[in-house]
From TrEMBL:
<feature type="transmembrane region" description="Helical">
    <location>
        <begin position="333"/>
        <end position="353"/>
    </location>
</feature>
<feature type="transmembrane region" description="Helical">
    <location>
        <begin position="295"/>
        <end position="321"/>
    </location>
</feature>
<keyword id="KW-1003">Cell membrane</keyword>
<dbReference type="InterPro" id="IPR043429">
    <property type="entry name" value="ArtM/GltK/GlnP/TcyL/YhdX-like"/>
</dbReference>
<dbReference type="Pfam" id="PF00528">
    <property type="entry name" value="BPD_transp_1"/>
</dbReference>
<keyword id="KW-0732">Signal</keyword>
<dbReference type="GO" id="GO:0043190">
    <property type="term" value="C:ATP-binding cassette (ABC) transporter complex"/>
</dbReference>
<comment type="similarity">
    <text>Belongs to the binding-protein-dependent transport system permease family. HisMQ subfamily.</text>
</comment>
<dbReference type="Pfam" id="PF00497">
    <property type="entry name" value="SBP_bac_3"/>
</dbReference>
<dbReference type="InterPro" id="IPR010065">
    <property type="entry name" value="AA_ABC_transptr_permease_3TM"/>
</dbReference>
<keyword id="KW-0812">Transmembrane</keyword>
<dbReference type="InterPro" id="IPR001638">
    <property type="entry name" value="Solute-binding_3/MltF_N"/>
</dbReference>
<dbReference type="GO" id="GO:0022857">
    <property type="term" value="F:transmembrane transporter activity"/>
</dbReference>
<keyword id="KW-0029">Amino-acid transport</keyword>
<keyword id="KW-0472">Membrane</keyword>
<dbReference type="InterPro" id="IPR000515">
    <property type="entry name" value="MetI-like"/>
</dbReference>
<protein>
    <submittedName>
        <fullName>ABC transporter substrate-binding protein/permease</fullName>
    </submittedName>
</protein>
């Protein structure tokens, strides 16, 4: 008993030290959504924190330097960036945020660190429709579909100034560009600088003649948690220096040039009118290292998730078949709740609940363990029930206690019976890891998002990743069936 207490104390101490280590005050945590060139995007030629580039990233580096802190970029989706700063998961959110009354109400907003004038929010259309949609009068019709990023200020402007048009919500700017090119939408609301960068690699896209009226609402702002006035005051003092020296304009020019270079390199050797199979092969060759790195992270997430979930799932299973009613109730409630909530929702909530500085990779593993353990608990329960009841009776008659009989006689047989099901759970988990791309953890789907952001080609990387997923899961499934047949004949 003393030994168990000692281990429990050591475990508690380790957990406390781990969470305390995450809360480091000498670091500046900044949330960005790196799909909004030239403000923030990803350079696949770099790795780690260096892969995040753009004018806003340079601004964040300057802030950290002046504050004498180490910058930690937390890449995630646009809405997740807003949520993470609101609950204190990060210190600041810097992702091309413009002014809105709702943001001013729910966040501490810095002064504008960059203002490019009253025409900085525009609508883009295909060049072939330029005359058709040259005015807001032509755009403001129910049959006109306008793409707006969910939670963005462009969505607010579109709702206010184009109330009759049909709004199509998009997850990222890149998705909106693709929808526009594929004619799934007729127009898209976007910042003018971002539109100009888009047009450098997409000559078939143009800016409408009429622009949104944003008088008094222009500029880009950093966001902090409501009430964190001291941090915003420090940020505002540094912004004064940035404006005085004209630094942001320099960063923006450099970012635009880098983005164009990356776009040209990403499509090197890929001819627009080349057969689709050729485009697939060329893109795969150009980004082979990126795809393999993404595959490695996908497999690592899946393997760690299924292994730790097996341990936790076994514990839940034993609680479920326990004679103690409270343990059975806790296990049943956990299993039913987790299986009844979508994995993406679990992943998002767990990410927001984790302390500042927690590795996104570890956070995703924890989410996968929590989710998979509920399913594995039921797998183990079925495995235990498949063992003949006489095995337990025989073990007890030989003098073994219930716990010893369970661990030495029943569980080994149950695990053997459930191995094929556990292997199938691993295959399922490989596909479920794709949801972690919301937080740019580096898996295959993250690689797809990054490639799309520079090439504006979504279909080709989707096909490549689908083929990779199929090869891995199909091979594992065949291996599992061979294993089952071998076990049946043994």
């Amino acid at each position: 008993m003393k030994k168990q207490g000692k281990y429990l104390l050591m475990l508690s101490l380790f957990v406390c030290l781990f969470f305390l280590s995450c809360k480091q005050t000498d670091k500046l945590y900044v949330a960005v959504s790196p799909d909004y060139a030239p403000y923030e995007f990803v350079n696949l030629n770099e790795s780690g924190q260096d892969q995040y580039v753009g004018a806003d990233i340079d601004f964040a580096h300057y802030l950290a330097q002046q504050m004498e802190k180490e910058l930690v970029i937390e890449a995630m989706g646009f809405t997740e960036a807003l949520a993470s700063v609101q609950n204190g998961r990060v210190d600041l959110a810097i992702s091309g945020f413009t002014y809105s009354s709702d943001r001013a109400k729910n966040y501490e907003m810095s002064q504008s660190y960059y203002d490019d004038g009253d025409g900085d929010q525009v609508v883009i259309v295909l060049k072939e429709n330029q005359d058709k949609y040259s005015t807001f009068e032509a755009l403001n019709k129910k049959e006109v579909r306008i793409g707006v990023q969910d939670g963005s200020v462009q969505a607010d402007y579109a709702n206010e100034q184009l109330p009759d048009a049909t709004k199509e919500k998009i997850a990222t700017i890149n998705d909106g560009i693709l929808w526009l090119k594929e004619k799934k939408i007729d127009a898209m609301a976007i910042a003018s600088n971002a539109a100009e960068v888009v047009m450098t690699t997409n000559p078939e896209i143009v800016i409408c003649d009429e622009k949104f009226d944003v008088t008094g609402k222009t500029g880009l702002f950093a966001l902090a948690k409501k009430g964190d006035k001291e941090l915003i005051a420090e940020v505002n003092a540094i912004i004064d220096e940035v404006k005085e020296q004209g630094l942001y304009e320099t960063w923006l020019t450099q970012a635009q040039e880098l983005y164009v270079q990356l776009g040209e390199a990403a499509v090197e050797g890929i001819v627009d009118d080349a057969p689709f199979i050729v485009r697939i092969w060329k893109m795969f060759v150009n980004h082979f290292g990126d795809f393999m790195k993404g595959l490695g992270i996908t497999l690592a997430l899946s393997l760690l998730g299924v292994l730790f979930a097996a341990v936790f799932g076994t514990l839940l299973c034993l609680m479920n078949i326990s004679k103690v009613r409270l343990l059975r109730w806790i296990s049943t409630a956990y299993i039913e709740i987790i299986r009844g909530i979508p994995l993406l929702l679990q992943l998002t909530v767990i990410f927001l609940l984790m302390p500042k500085g927690m590795s996104k990779f570890i956070t995703c593993v924890i989410a996968l363990v929590i989710n998979s353990s509920a399913y594995q608990a039921e797998i183990f329960r079925s495995g235990i029930q498949s063992v003949d009841q006489g095995q337990m009776e025989a073990a007890r008659s030989l003098g073994l206690s219930y716990p010893k009989a369970m661990f030495k006689v029943i569980l080994p047989q149950a695990i053997k019976n459930t191995l094929p099901s556990l292997a199938n759970e691993f295959v399922s988990l490989i596909k479920e890891t794709s949801l972690s791309s919301t937080f740019y953890v580096g898996d295959l789907m993250t690689v797809k998002s990054i490639i799309t952001s520079t090439t504006y080609d979504s279909l080709t990387p989707y096909v490549i990743i689908a083929i990779i997923y199929f090869i891995i899961t199909f091979s594992l499934s065949k291996l599992i069936r061979w294993w089952e047949k071998k076990g049946a004949t043994a």
